[in-house]
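Our preliminary data section would be incomplete without showing what the modeling component actually yields. Below, a chain of 135 amino acids is followed by its predicted structure, encoded as tokens that our downstream tools consume directly.
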Amino acid sequence: MSIRTDRVGRMIQREIADLLTQDFGEATHSLVTVTGVRMTDDLGTAYVDVSVLGADDLQRKTALARLDAQTTEIRHALAQRIRHQLKRMPELRFFLDEGAQRRERMDAIFAQIAADRDDDAASEASDETPSRGEY
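Predicted structure:
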């Protein structure tokens, strides 16, 4: 990625995040956070990664479907905000960023491994301690 694509990606990320909180927040019915934007080299397409704070997978996918349905309105509102900075407004594509959910799953797995190791260590320690009659 070049400096220009990085700079345009950060600008679009900032503006879309602002749009989603101010203008399109009620339409998604969920707390949506823009976690990143990747731009193609020709600045024609912006891949927008969003994280949805929701209890289940269905709620996250529903919020993403609502964003996909409103892509043209979001793109038009974005064009009104940054019309003097880009010649052509990029096409927006939204993707669900499941990094937080993966991180929670990994933390749960590591906690389970640590608990299993503690249980194994405790059972081995109790096996090695001599009883009163073995001194």
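The chain has a mean pLDDT of 85. Strands lie at 31-39, 45-53, 91-96. Preliminary results of this kind motivate Aim 1 of the renewal.
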